[in-house]
Amino acid sequence: MNFIPYETFEHGADIGVRGYGHTLEEAFENGARALFALMVENFEEIIPEREISLEVSAELLDELFVVWLNQLLTVSDLENMVFRDFKVNLSGEELRAKALGEPLDPAKHQLGVEVKGATFTLAKVERQGELWVAQCVVDV
Question: What dotted CATH number matches 9-139?
Fold first, then answer.
């Protein structure tokens, strides 16, 4: 079955990000791809040459998705990096992941939308038929 792994959607003055996956982990990974594809217009040209480890936890899946995206934004800002690939491992309330990317280079990366943070607006993580969907609205 072919499917689009991620997308964005309009929400007032903000934008939603949505990741799809055959597994819960894949939906979280693709949600992160949607986030960085929004931030870097030539997202596919990001080279996954450097790996950053992240760990977050939350009681609910939708909360975990929002916390995950906000942690990625924080690390991206602190390390001055952009990410393209993600390896997520979920265990109960814990998410452990690797984010792969490269240092932000304004000469190379075509900057898109500046994302301030992920919000709980329309946040949900659920199974829809064959796929998992992870989504929320990001503040831009």
Answer: 3.55.10.10
